[in-house]
Amino acid sequence: ADEGQGLERAARMTEIAYEQLPEEAAIADSMGWVRYKQGVIFDEHDAEGGTSREGAVTLLQRAAQLPEGQEDPTIRDHLADAQWLADRRDEAIRSWTVARALLETLGQTSGGLSEEGEAQLAHIEQKIADAEAGREPNVADTVSPVNRPEPAPAPTPEPPLESADPDDAPDADPADNNPENPTDRAPRSVNQHGRS
User: pTM for this one?
Assistant: First the structure.
């Protein structure tokens, strides 16, 4: 799915795995990364305003909060890329900074990083430097254009309460609402038809 080939197949397989094991950080990360590659960065909503499909940011935040995800620099890097595309720039820089610290700690505790780990660290450091300098960092490409947040549906206004019988509606006599003159609240006079 990383290169966009077989993305739909990967998406279907990952969705099945995620439905069965949503608390597995690696699976939540894979689901988030598939959505990222699809350009689904933001949550998508149904007509009632509920979430119909979670976007990459939501899924990758969840993955990063799971116990295994808290110590995984790749999940933090994925999250940062998604946050960057979601225009959450400060959060992205913080997530890349956490990813860098995790990689540095891993290198110190394991006697050094692998060649792949060194390359990942260098790439993350470059993204941080670019972002802090006001340049566009080299985040991962998406296969499809990035979705944009949908405005929340406007609430349906309640229809005004109307009396079924117009004769039941109160008469609008301004004297009834005059607190300064209590004598204006006297019973209404009888009109020429004998009705009050």
Answer: 0.74
